[in-house]
Amino acid sequence: MKIGSIINGDEMKPSKETMTVTNPYNNEVVAEIALAAEEELNRAIDNSYDTFHQTTKKMPAHERGDILLKASNLLEERLEEFAETITKEAGKPLQFSRGEVERSMQVLRFAAEEAKHMEGEVLPMDAAIGGKNRFGFTKRVPLGVVAAITPFNFPLNLTLHKVAPAIAAGNTIILKPAEKTPLSAYKLVQLLHEAGLPKGALNLVLGTGKEIGDPLVKHERIHKVTFTGSLPVGRTIRKNAGFKKVTLELGSNSPNILFEDADLNEAIPSLVKGSFAFSGQVCISAQRIYVHQNIYESFLNEFIRQTEALTIGDPMNEETDFGPMINEDEAKRAKTWIDDAVNHGATIKTGGERNGTILKPTIMTDVKSDMKIIAEEVFAPIVSVIPFSSENQVVSKSNDSIYGLQAGIFTKDIDRAFRIADQLEMGGVWINEISTYRQDNHPYGGVKQSGIGREGVKYALEDMTEMKFYGIKLNG
Ligand code: NAD
Asked: In Å, how far from its chain's centre is CA 312?
């Protein structure tokens, strides 16, 4: 399969420069992609700019909503095709790829509804001295051209968390997907066109971060940059974006806290999933599990037992729970972090071995706060289990991080749950649920260096519009 960038509905012919997308499990070539030249990027941006002014900003809300709803229905019809595409390009086990497509269908439905709720407000103008006989109201208006830059780990769902609210708001979009996983995005653009999206409302540019991402972020015709990816790239984008609006959805080393009264029957299977789903390559993956010292041993034994029961193998097999990492370099990088921790006193309770792109589900103990597997975002199937003795201690350990995306707390004591949740420096806290759980309609985003802004369709849409004030002076 050969694919190219899509500008104004037309697919670009493969140029000389191409890149291959390979299946992380068996290294088979999945597609060859034609990299966009800077001239093509500029053409895409000009086309998006013109389409915004000529078409999308004038489109009625019900039409935008209808397109999104139709796209959701089309996606439902092609669930299997999209799930297989995600599995082939990202190596995600099929059961999780299906879940990603189902969530993506919902994102489109939420966006279809939100398109019809871009409400403003009427202002009490007479509250100000001199405001008598004045009438004021606000409208939410689209911004213009939105640049959406996406990561490899949820190549469909996280793309839609940007594309769907941008369409709902009446913006046009330049989409630059991760070069490792561009196929789902490519198919999504075609699907949205089939659903009736005007040509030029969503242009796809394929290329690397350096060659396409950089000039895209700097371009003066871009009004907003919405990025999901790593902290170092987030920093560069923040610097390059200048006065543009910016949303950054970055990394994390999410804590999960289990008190003595935690329901372990509920928590342990969820934490196995939350630590190892898609080989830990999830921004809110459970990375640090703090367990009260009185239940530490019993938790650890059962957690290890259930982890060792995971079925490891080909992600295309129905029964596979656990597959490869995105590439061998990443698996090697994660393995060196394990070795480094062991050299400084940590213990591997299970896992730790690497075979090509597969790094076995790994549970670590005896870890210290300055080890990379604790202090940095591990983004790999490595989780650490750490005992604690008091509320203050666990709050301070959990907050001892440059990140603050999402956390999980397990306890039956609701007062304690709220006490802890209030003190955690996070964008979101789940009580009796793992940090890895996310719904597509709640506000989602980080504090500290986990990011800026919020997604979750309604909240992303707010950030993709401008509030415009209208005032009228009446004659009394
Ligand atoms: P990455 O930062 O390497 O790449 C993300 C995207 O940025 C890619 O499309 C890449 O081509 C592009 N890019 C790279 N350099 C660029 C530049 N200079 N200018 C513009 N664009 C550039 O991330 P990844 O490896 O694909 O994904 C993993 C990271 O994403 C992890 O850190 C993870 O935590 C984060 N993530 C965060 C969330 C969230 O919602 N907070 C969700 C998923 C993933």
From this structure: 25
User: Which of 114, 179, 283, 330 is the catalytic position?
Assistant: 283
- Residue 129 near residue 207 (C-beta atoms within 8 A): no
Q: What is the mean pLDDT of the chain?
A: 98
Q: How far apart are CA 74 and CA 157, in angstroms?
A: 15
Confidence of residue 17 (pLDDT cuts 50, 70, 90): confident
Cα separation of 453 and 433, whole Å? 23
State pLDDT tens for residues 21-75.
999 999 999 999 999 999 999 999 999 999 999 999 999 999 999 999 999 999 9
Burial of 240 (0-12, 13-18, 19+ CB in 10 A): middle
Q: Give me the sign of the Cα torsion angle 365, 371, 376, 382.
A: negative
3-state secondary structure at position 22:
strand
Distance CA 208, CA 186 (A): 15
Helix (H/G/I), strand (E/B), else coil: 395? helix
Query: CA–CA distance from 87 to each of 96, 178, 235 (Å)?
Result: 9, 15, 30
Tokens representing 11?
């697919």
Mean pLDDT confidence for 127-133: 97
Place of tokens 């075979």: 355
Neighbouring C-beta atoms of residue 40, cutoff 10 Å: 21
Question: Is 63 a catalytic site residue?
Answer: no
Residue closest via CA to ligand 1's atom 17 equals 209
Ligand 1 atom 12, closest CA: 209
Q: For residue 336, give the 3-state DSSP assignment.
A: helix
State the distance from the centre of ligand 1 to the C-alpha of 7, rounded, in angstroms: 23
Cβ within 8 Å of residue 137, ≥6 positions away: 120, 121, 122, 123, 469, 470
Q: Specify the pLDDT at position 126.
A: 97
Predicted TM-score (pTM) above 0.85: yes
Residue minimizing CA distance to atom 40 of ligand 1: 249
Residue 156 has what pLDDT? Answer: 98
80 is catalytic: no
Q: Which of 89, 100, 249, 330 is catalytic?
A: 249
How far, in Å, CA of 221 to CA of 171, rounded?
Answer: 13
Give the E-state strand segments of 76-132 in sequence order: 122-123
| pLDDT(14) > 90 | no
- 283 pocket-lining for ligand 1 (C-beta < 6 Å): yes
Report pLDDT digits (tens) over 320-364.
Answer: 999 999 999 999 999 999 999 999 999 999 999 999 999 999 999
